[in-house]
Every structure is written in C-alpha cells, then in structure tokens.
Amino acid sequence: MLHHIVAHGADPDGIVTHAILRRALLKTQHHFADYDNFTAILEKLLTAEPGKLIIADISCNDRIASPEMFESLKRRHRNISWYDHHTGSYEQKGFLARYAGVTLSTNQCAAQLVLEVYAAKDDYAQFLAHLGQIHDFEQKEDEFAPQAYALQDIIASECNQHDLVSDLAAEKVWDEHRAFTPVYQKVLDVSSERKNKAYSRLEQSVEQREIAGLRVAVAYSDPILYMKPAYQRLQEHLDDDCIFVLYEGKSNILALAGKKIGKRILDFLAVQGGGGRGHGGGFVLDHPVSAETYQQDKEEILRRFGRYFSKEA
Asked: Tens digits of per-residue pLDDT, 91-120?
C-alpha cells in the first residue's frame, strides 16, 4: 500500500519522522509541510493516488480544520493518522478524531510517537527519533545534542529534502561513530560561515517597541536561521516580553514570549490563524516576506499585537 507522509519539513522532528517511515514502509510518498503550504498539500492529496495518509508534527488550527476538506480526504484515502504534540492539535482533537486516528503527547515529539507504532524495535530509528526529541524539547545536555542541532543546520541549508530523508533512512548521514560523513560535514562547514554572517545581520535588524505596556522586539532573518536558531540567538541577548522574527522568503512568522506573556501568546497566535507550543509558535501571512515588504509587514504584525493585548489589558 502507498503511504502518503505529510510531516514538517523544517526541523529535525519532522525530517526524522519522514526518515523513520521511509525505513519502515515499503512504498511512501513524502510531502514536506510547513504552515504556509500545509493546506495546499492537503488539497493536492484530494486527487493523489489513494493510500494511507500519515500526518505528523504539524499543528491543527481553525484555518486547517475544514470538515469539507477532511471528509474528502477520508473518502479518497480512507485511513488517516495524525501524530503531534502542538497545542492546536489538542484543541482540535475532537474534530480530528472524526476523520483520523489521533495520537498526541505533551512530552514526546512526533517522531517518538511514530516510532512506537512503526519501528519500535529498530535501534537506528530510535536514534533518529531521539534527535527529534532533543531538538524539540531543547535537551542541550544530551550526548547527541550536537548531532540534533547540526541536523537543523543541514535542514536550514536548503539541501534537497528528499535526498536528506533518503540518506537518513539509509544511514548515510553519520558513520558508525555518529560523526557526520564527509558530504554532510562539508554542508555544515559551508552552513557555519553563512550562519555567522546571518547572525550579525539579524542582530543589526532588531527594533524594539513599547506596545500595550509590553516590550516587543522584531527582527529580520536570513532563511538559514529559520525556526529556532534566529529567535534563540535573540533570546540570549534580549529581555523583551515578545520577540517576532520575520524570515526572508517565508510567510511563516515566528513569535517567542517571555514570562510576562507566557502561554497567552498561543491565544494571540490562534487569533491570527496560527498556533504553537509552550511560549512560542507562529502564524502565516498571505505572502512571503522580502526586503521590499518587511517594513510594512513589521508594522502590520505590531499593529495586530497591540490591538490584541490592548483589549486583553
């Protein structure tokens, strides 16, 4: 049977989920989802070859939770499974359960959840899932944290996702000592140079505002710092109540809240059609951010933030 794998394509949890399922199943098609293309992927699956549909490491929200869409997907593919750990999926669990087998956890990444069903006895798959767990839950003291965070750098280097998943599944990314092979070490060396320059530009772009009694920072990032690297770097140097990062070429806007806002940021993100987990997450604009649109996009995001938190106050 054909398995359509729809999992996050921008971080280790999603990528190793793809790789684990590539190892475990005979026939797979891989669809690399992010929040700006997830709906489009689901729409394409409405006319794709029928099979089993596995969705993982992607949050469900009101924008995605369309009964018409999921009824059509169920008719087309009959068997749908959803594995996740994001707040939005918990909030939509009742909806999802009408169409899919739903497996959720607050303390396990999606790769760990998938592993338990499809590859529990595969030692190498366990290693892959562990990398997803390390990165998602920021277990920086783990002995394999260097591999997990380096894998994020490889993913962000814009290497071919299908090739990376294939190499991960075939144990071609590391040697027997879990050191990167020469091919991937070269990718990391090039990525390191790019990241250093990108961090400098990121820090220079920071603008801070006082909005609704809250200190807010906004920054513009090179896509090589997509997902956690950009806002983690800013978090080290800033003490703002909220940090927004806009990424060149991406329509997905990420936000990280400090203690003063905490999990209330998730409510704000949900109003924007997005979601997240803990004190962070994101939402999607209707266009990719560019140098030309950045100033206008920044002001729009701050306007939304001010309107929401002014009402809350």
From this structure: 999 999 999 999 999 999 999 999 999 999
Nearest partner of 13 among 103, 118, 138, judged by Cα: 138
220 bridge partner residues:
246
CB 109 within 8 A of CB 85: yes
- CA dist 63 and 54 (Å) reads 19
Q: State the pTM of this model.
A: 0.90
Token pair, residue 281, equals: 């997450």
What distance in Å separates the CA atoms of residue 44 and residue 308, rounded to the nearest whole number?
Answer: 34
Which tokens in the block code for residue 157? 């280097």
Cα–Cα distance between 279 and 184 in angstroms, integer?
Answer: 32
Distant-in-sequence contacts of 114-117, Cβ < 8 A, 24+ apart: 114/17, 114/20, 114/21, 114/54, 114/56, 114/83, 115/20
What single letter denotes the amino acid at residue 102? V
Closest among 171, 274, 172, 155 to 224, alpha carbons compared: 155
